[in-house]
Model the fold of this input.
Amino acid sequence: MDENMNETEIIYGLKNDDRRVFEYVFDTFFPQVHFFATRLIDESEEARDIVIRVFQTFWNLKQNFESINNVKAFLYITTRNNCLNYLDYRHRQEQGRKEYESRLLRVKDEKTTERKVIEAELLSIIYRKVEELPERCREIFKLTYFEGLKAGEIAQRLNISTSTVTTQRSIAIKHLREVLTDENFIMLCLVFNHGWHLMHNTA
Done:
C-alpha cells in the first residue's frame, strides 16, 4: 500500500468499504491514540482495548467522514469519552480510592486533554523516526527503551556481544538526535525508559 496515501484516497476508500484504507488509518493513528488513552487512564492494556473498540466503531461509521481532520477528531474524542466512562466505572467499583477520582477530574479538564493530544501527536513522529533506523539499531533501541532491557539481556537474546549492543544503541540515539527537533527529542527522553541515559548518550 502507498505509504503516502492522500486524503482524497482515504475518504474515497472509507466510503467504498476499502479494508486496505482502514488498515492504513489504523496503522497511522493507533500508536498515538493508544498513547493518548494510556496517558488518560494509566493502564496500557486497558487503553489498547479501548482504542481497538474505538476503531471498530470508526469502521462502522466510515462513510460519515469527509476529511482526515474529521477522522482524527472522532478518534480522539471517542477515545477520551470511553476513557472517561472506564474511569467512572472503576470509581464506582472502588469507592474511596482517591486516585480514580483525581484522574477523572484530570480527564474532564479540557486543557489536560488537549496537552495529551499534542503529546500523542509528537510521539507518533518519534515512532516513525524509530522505524526508519537500520534493522539492528531499531531492534536494539526498542529492546532498550521500549522494553527496558539491559545491554547484557539484549546481547543474550540476540546472541551478540554486549559491546555490539552498546555500539548499535549509540548509533541509534545519535541518528534520532539528528533527525528529531529538540522538542521531539526531549519528548523521547521523557516518555521512554532510561530517559536520563538517553538524553546524555548523544556524544
